[in-house]
Amino acid sequence: MADKNAQKEPCGLYLLTPEKIDDLVRFIDTLDLVLATGVVTCLQLRLKSVDDSVIIETAKALLPICHKHEVPLLLNDRADIAAEVDADGVHLGQEDGDVASARTLLGHNKDIGVTCHSSLHLAFEAGEAGANYVAFGSFFPSVTKKNATPADKEILSTWDEVTDIACVAIGGITPDNCRELADSGAHFVAVSSAVWNHKDGPVAAVRVFEAALA
Ligand SMILES: Cc1ncc(COP(=O)(O)OP(=O)(O)O)c(N)n1
Ligand SMILES: Cc1nc(C(=O)O)sc1CCOP(=O)(O)O
Ligand SMILES: [Mg+2]
Fold first, then answer.
1. Which CATH number, 1.10.1060.10, 3.20.20.70, 3.40.50.300, 3.30.420.10, labels domain 4-213?
2. Cβ neighbours of 160 (radius 10 Å)
3. Which atom of ligand 1 is nearest to the CA of 135?
4. Cα–Cα distance, 56 to 34 (Å, whole number)
5. 3-state secondary structure at position 158
6. Which residues sit with Cβ closer than 5 angstroms to ligand 3, an ion?
7. Three-class SS of residue 70?
8. Which residues pair with 170 in a beta bridge?
9. In angstroms, what is the span from residue 154 Cα to ligand 1's centroid?
10. How much is the pTM?
11. Is 160 within any annotated ligand binding site?
């Protein structure tokens, strides 16, 4: 039998939106071009400090674009809104509610991811509760989340050896440092600023990630 790494899917690019979207029409045009590259495997709507009505309006506007490109849209923090807008899932932090309640709201065909920082214990708990993926981080200093808990990439290889549940690496990931996380066992790298703040724009950024992860 071939070794399991020989059959492994390439590491996917999991994109987080900016925390605020000032011009939704313009953002949708940009997102359409970014997703048309085929490089992004998952999008998370991660709006912070906005009213629920803005999250709902934005999610409803992004869902058709994501689905046109066959990219699932997950909501950050809010299983209730994910259920209301029929999004493809939710990402829960340790303070964002439990997996069982989210599963009740969303049903079994939606994805639930859980932040596990640098803790295998939290990851096993999330897996046992029915999470579809666990997220470890922060692997590098992040301008998006300046006080994130640091994580060591060895947690990715350990997780990859002991379970079949997907793991996402997050935190300060760039085209220059993503390869080492993929080689350590990350199934997805989750990225925000390195795409939206790239000097040549977000479409060029995802192309550079594609080359780095190939
Ligand atoms: C894929 C992914 N991993 C981790 C996080 C962080 O979630 P959380 O700890 O709840 O922090 P906020 O994103 O809510 O600030 C994430 N969003 N996505
Ligand atoms: C939202 C988030 N969570 C993190 C964690 O460690 O749990 S790091 C992070 C920020 C990710 O954005 P960027 O790619 O700009 O660093
Ligand atoms: Mg959260």
1. 3.20.20.70
2. 19
3. 3
4. 22
5. helix
6. 77, 93, 96
7. coil
8. 137, 190
9. 20
10. 0.96
11. no
Q: How far, in Å, CA of 86 to CA of 73, rounded? A: 10
Quote the distance between the C-alpha of residue 146 and its chain's center: 18
**Which residue reads 């070794």 in tokens?**
3
**Any idea what DSSP says for residue 170?**
E
What does the radius of gyration of the chain's CA atoms come to, in whole angstroms?
16
91 lines ligand 1 (CB under 6 A): yes
Q: What is the ipTM of this complex?
A: 0.99
145 annotated to a ligand binding site? yes
- Which residue, 158, 147, 136, 153, is CA-closest to 14? 136
Nearest to 74 by CA among 135, 137, 134, 17: 17
Q: Which two tokens stand for residue 35?
A: 């997703």
**Cβ atoms < 10 Å from Cβ of 70:** 9
- What is the token pair recorded at 205? 């950024």
Atom of ligand 1 nearest to the CA of 95: 10
Residues 94-150: tens digit of each pLDDT: 999 999 999 999 999 999 999 999 999 999 999 999 999 999 999 999 999 999 999
